[in-house]
């Protein structure tokens, strides 16, 4: 079997629909494994399997996100993630068309296009009439010769399959970057726990107790569209609890804030995250803990 694998960067103005498209393409097979594989400067957002191809979606770090202004200097820096990618997909909103922001991104594409294909995905086609689409596609392709143009609705799922199939064929031949069991269906709870664990790692570095685990205990969808997530951080010693809490609870507060922000971005809605640290000397021996982490627990020496 010939396998393919590579990195795909989704770029576009804030609100273009990158997260929606990513979630569609990745589906349930999403994985937060950033700390395990450091093959790229960019962060891994998700992994999708398409036939024999493994498509790894990367972030263009921070710079195309809302809240931040998209001035020229930032755009230049934002290409970091795209430059690491094998294929780049530019998302443009059908109803907004060739905005100033899009024009600025187009200006940078020449540089990025060296050595990699760039596809155009006109998103939110559910919001416009077909003639508008043809005109927009023509105008954009005149500014940059895209390898392929897709008309999609990330929200409704139109055209997404075709885009994913095309991406798979464009990736270089090579072994998969992630073992298959790492991208097996990871429930959202586990992904959320993994995010908190990652923030703890970032915050505590060497200090991080080796025997530490994070579990999502409760996930409640609220009527206002937000989610309440309760997580437990298990450590094996009292001393470790102190480390995780930090002076006056400062560490856990910062970790909680960082994890919540990432969760909100990932889910695209507000999150109320509650963290609690528990000392449980025996957790390493408890079968239940392993099962929740997606690991097989074997009794005895096995
Ligand atoms: N009508 C319509 N709305 C869409 C479509 N795709 C995404 N949206 C909406 O567009 C908005 C922005 O989508 P996101 O996926 O958050 O966009 P993003 O590019 O990740 O945004 P940033 O995180 O700000 O960079 C959301 O309200 C989506 O529901 C689509 O195909 N049709």
Automatic annotation (TrEMBL):
<feature type="domain" description="KH type-2">
    <location>
        <begin position="204"/>
        <end position="281"/>
    </location>
</feature>
<keyword id="KW-0472">Membrane</keyword>
<comment type="function">
    <text>An essential GTPase that binds both GDP and GTP, with rapid nucleotide exchange. Plays a role in 16S rRNA processing and 30S ribosomal subunit biogenesis and possibly also in cell cycle regulation and energy metabolism.</text>
</comment>
<feature type="region of interest" description="G2">
    <location>
        <begin position="38"/>
        <end position="42"/>
    </location>
</feature>
<feature type="region of interest" description="G1">
    <location>
        <begin position="12"/>
        <end position="19"/>
    </location>
</feature>
<keyword id="KW-1003">Cell membrane</keyword>
<feature type="region of interest" description="G5">
    <location>
        <begin position="152"/>
        <end position="154"/>
    </location>
</feature>
<dbReference type="InterPro" id="IPR006073">
    <property type="entry name" value="GTP-bd"/>
</dbReference>
<dbReference type="GO" id="GO:0003924">
    <property type="term" value="F:GTPase activity"/>
</dbReference>
<dbReference type="InterPro" id="IPR027417">
    <property type="entry name" value="P-loop_NTPase"/>
</dbReference>
<dbReference type="GO" id="GO:0005829">
    <property type="term" value="C:cytosol"/>
</dbReference>
<keyword id="KW-0547">Nucleotide-binding</keyword>
<dbReference type="GO" id="GO:0043024">
    <property type="term" value="F:ribosomal small subunit binding"/>
</dbReference>
<feature type="binding site">
    <location>
        <begin position="123"/>
        <end position="126"/>
    </location>
    <ligand>
        <name>GTP</name>
    </ligand>
</feature>
<feature type="domain" description="Era-type G">
    <location>
        <begin position="4"/>
        <end position="173"/>
    </location>
</feature>
<dbReference type="InterPro" id="IPR004044">
    <property type="entry name" value="KH_dom_type_2"/>
</dbReference>
<comment type="subunit">
    <text>Monomer.</text>
</comment>
<comment type="similarity">
    <text>Belongs to the TRAFAC class TrmE-Era-EngA-EngB-Septin-like GTPase superfamily. Era GTPase family.</text>
</comment>
<keyword id="KW-0963">Cytoplasm</keyword>
<dbReference type="InterPro" id="IPR009019">
    <property type="entry name" value="KH_sf_prok-type"/>
</dbReference>
<keyword id="KW-0342">GTP-binding</keyword>
<protein>
    <recommendedName>
        <fullName>GTPase Era</fullName>
    </recommendedName>
</protein>
<feature type="binding site">
    <location>
        <begin position="59"/>
        <end position="63"/>
    </location>
    <ligand>
        <name>GTP</name>
    </ligand>
</feature>
<dbReference type="InterPro" id="IPR005225">
    <property type="entry name" value="Small_GTP-bd"/>
</dbReference>
<dbReference type="GO" id="GO:0000028">
    <property type="term" value="P:ribosomal small subunit assembly"/>
</dbReference>
<dbReference type="GO" id="GO:0070181">
    <property type="term" value="F:small ribosomal subunit rRNA binding"/>
</dbReference>
<feature type="region of interest" description="G3">
    <location>
        <begin position="59"/>
        <end position="62"/>
    </location>
</feature>
<dbReference type="GO" id="GO:0005525">
    <property type="term" value="F:GTP binding"/>
</dbReference>
<dbReference type="GO" id="GO:0005886">
    <property type="term" value="C:plasma membrane"/>
</dbReference>
<dbReference type="InterPro" id="IPR015946">
    <property type="entry name" value="KH_dom-like_a/b"/>
</dbReference>
<keyword id="KW-0690">Ribosome biogenesis</keyword>
<dbReference type="Pfam" id="PF01926">
    <property type="entry name" value="MMR_HSR1"/>
</dbReference>
<keyword id="KW-0699">rRNA-binding</keyword>
<keyword id="KW-0694">RNA-binding</keyword>
<dbReference type="InterPro" id="IPR005662">
    <property type="entry name" value="GTPase_Era-like"/>
</dbReference>
<dbReference type="InterPro" id="IPR030388">
    <property type="entry name" value="G_ERA_dom"/>
</dbReference>
<dbReference type="Pfam" id="PF07650">
    <property type="entry name" value="KH_2"/>
</dbReference>
<feature type="region of interest" description="G4">
    <location>
        <begin position="123"/>
        <end position="126"/>
    </location>
</feature>
<feature type="binding site">
    <location>
        <begin position="12"/>
        <end position="19"/>
    </location>
    <ligand>
        <name>GTP</name>
    </ligand>
</feature>
């Amino acid at each position: 079997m010939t396998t393919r694998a590579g990195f795909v960067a989704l770029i576009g103005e804030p609100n273009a629909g990158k997260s929606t498209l990513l979630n569609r393409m990745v589906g349930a097979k999403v994985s937060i494994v950033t700390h395990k594989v450091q093959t790229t400067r960019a962060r891994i957002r998700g992994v999708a399997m398409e036939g024999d191809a493994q498509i790894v979606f990367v972030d263009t770090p921070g710079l195309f996100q809302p809240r931040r202004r998209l001035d020229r200097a930032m755009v230049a820096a934002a290409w970091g993630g795209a430059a690491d990618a094998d294929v780049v997909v530019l998302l443009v909103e059908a109803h907004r068309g060739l905005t100033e922001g899009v024009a600025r991104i187009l200006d940078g594409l020449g540089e990025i296009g060296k050595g990699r294909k760039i596809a155009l995905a006109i998103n939110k086609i559910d919001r416009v009439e077909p003639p508008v689409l043809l005109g927009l596609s023509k105008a954009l392709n005149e500014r940059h010769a895209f390898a392929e143009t897709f008309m999609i609705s990330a929200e409704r799922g139109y055209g997404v399959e075709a885009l994913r199939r095309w991406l798979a064929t464009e990736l270089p031949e090579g072994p998969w970057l992630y073992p298959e069991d790492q991208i097996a269906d990871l429930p959202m709870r586990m992904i959320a726990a993994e995010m908190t664990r990652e923030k703890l790692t970032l915050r505590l570095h060497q200090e991080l107790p080796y025997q530490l685990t994070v579990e999502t205990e409760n996930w409640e969808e609220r009527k206002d569209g937000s989610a309440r997530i309760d997580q437990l951080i298990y450590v094996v010693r009292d001393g470790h609890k102190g480390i995780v809490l930090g002076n006056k609870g400062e560490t856990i507060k910062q970790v909680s804030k960082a994890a919540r922000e990432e969760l909100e971005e990932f889910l695209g809605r507000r999150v109320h995250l509650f963290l609690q640290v528990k000392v449980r000397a025996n957790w390493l021996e408890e079968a239940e803990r392993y099962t929740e982490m997606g690991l097989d627990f074997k009794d005895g020496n096995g």
